[in-house]
Design goal:
A mainly alpha, B mainly alpha, C mainly alpha, A: flat, C: 4 helices, elongated
C-alpha cells in the first residue's frame, strides 16, 4: 500500500506502543501521587490522550477519535468546571448569589 | 523470526530517514515526559503536557505515513484542538479565572 | 526521477522537523525557569511540526489539504496557548531565574519584578 514497506510499519508501531505504554503508566502515577488537583486532572487527561494514540496504532481511528474527544476533552473540562464551582467553598459561596 | 523481504523501490534511503526521524521524536517524547514527571511547579507540567501532545501529533503523522492511511490525520487534527483547549483551560484555572 | 527527488526531500524535511522536536525537548529539560521552558518548548515544536507536515505532504501529495489545515491550526493555536500560559505563570508570580535582566510586563503593570 505504502511505498515505505511493512517492516518500517511494524517496527514503528511496536516502538511507539512501548513508549506509549510506559508514558501511560508514569502519567497515571503522577495523577495519583501529585498533591495539586489541577495537575492530577491534567495527568488523567494525558493518560486518556496516550490511550487514544494507542488505539490509533492498533488501527482503530474511530475509537481513537472518540477517546480523544470524550475521555480527554469532555472529562477534563467537566472536572475543571466542577473544580471551579466547588473551590469557592465557604468564603465565596455567599458572593455568588 | 520471519525474514522480512527487502523493499526494492526507491524508498530505501527514505525509509532510513523516516526511521531516524521517528527515533529522534521518541527521544524528544522521553525528555518532555521527564519534565512532566519532574516539574517543580504546575506551569512546568502544563508546558510539558503541551510538548508531549505536539510530539504525539508527529508520532501520529509518522504512523499514518508508515501505514499509508490518510484517515489518521483526522485524529491528529482533533488532538491538536484538544491540546490547545486543555492548555487554555488549565492556564485560566491557574490564573484564578475560568 | 522527480518523484524520487521529492520523496528524498520530504524525508529530509521530516528529519529536520524531528531534530527541532529533539532540541525542544532538550530545552525543556535544561532551561532554568518556567518562562524559558515555555519559550524553548513552544517555538521549536511549532517549527518542527510545520516541517514534519511539509515533509509528509511531499511524501504523500494526496493528503495536502488536511495537512495544510492541521498546519494552519497549529500555527495559530500553539503560540496563543504559550502566551496565555506565560501570562498566567507571570500573574501567579512564579520564580524567575536570577539571570533575568528585564521584565517588561512587570514594568507595564507597575509591579516590582
Amino acid at each position: 500500500m505504502s511505498s515505505l514497506g511493512m517492516d518500517l510499519a511494524s517496527n514503528l508501531t511496536s516502538g511507539l506502543a512501548l513508549l506509549l505504554g510506559l508514558a501511560m503508566v508514569l502519567a497515571a502515577l503522577v495523577a495519583i501521587l501529585v498533591r495539586s488537583t489541577p495537575i492530577a486532572i491534567l495527568s488523567a487527561g494525558l493518560v486518556s490522550l496516550f490511550a487514544s494514540v494507542l488505539f490509533l496504532i492498533l488501527a482503530a481511528p474511530d475509537v481513537a477519535m472518540t477517546e480523544a474527544a470524550i475521555g480527554s476533552g469532555l472529562t477534563t473540562f467537566l472536572f475543571f468546571f466542577v473544580l471551579a464551582r466547588v473551590r469557592g467553598g465557604e468564603s465565596e459561596a455567599s458572593d455568588d448569589d | 523470526m520471519v525474514d522480512v523481504p527487502v523493499v526494492t523501490s526507491v524508498a530505501a534511503p527514505v525509509m532510513l530517514l523516516v526511521s531516524l526521524a521517528a527515533i529522534l521524536a521518541g527521544v524528544a517524547f522521553l525528555l518532555a515526559l521527564w519534565r512532566f514527571l519532574q516539574g517543580p511547579t504546575a506551569a512546568d507540567r502544563v508546558v510539558a503536557f503541551d510538548v508531549l501532545t505536539i510530539v504525539s501529533i508527529t508520532g501520529i503523522l509518522l504512523t499514518a505515513l508508515a501505514e499509508g492511511r490518510g484517515i489518521y490525520l483526522d485524529v491528529a487534527l482533533i488532538y491538536g484542538l484538544l491540546s490547545f483547549l486543555g492548555v487554555i483551560v488549565v492556564a485560566r484555572h491557574l490564573e484564578g479565572g475560568l | 526521477m522527480i518523484a524520487a527527488l521529492l520523496d528524498l526531500l520530504g524525508a529530509l524535511l521530516l528529519l529536520v522537523g524531528s531534530v527541532f522536536m529533539l532540541l525542544g525537548g532538550l530545552g525543556l529539560v535544561r532551561m532554568p525557569d518556567v518562562f524559558n521552558r515555555i519559550q524553548a518548548g513552544t517555538k521549536t515544536t511549532t517549527l518542527g511540526t510545520l516541517l514534519t507536515l511539509s515533509g509528509v505532504g511531499l511524501l504523500q501529495p494526496d493528503w495536502a489539504l488536511k495537512l495544510l489545515l492541521i498546519g494552519l491550526f497549529i500555527l495559530f493555536t500553539n503560540p496563543l496557548s504559550a502566551q496565555v500560559l506565560a501570562r498566567a505563570a507571570h500573574r501567579i508570580g512564579l520564580r524567575k531565574t536570577p539571570l533575568t535582566r528585564v521584565d517588561r510586563l512587570a514594568e507595564d503593570t507597575g509591579e516590582d519584578a
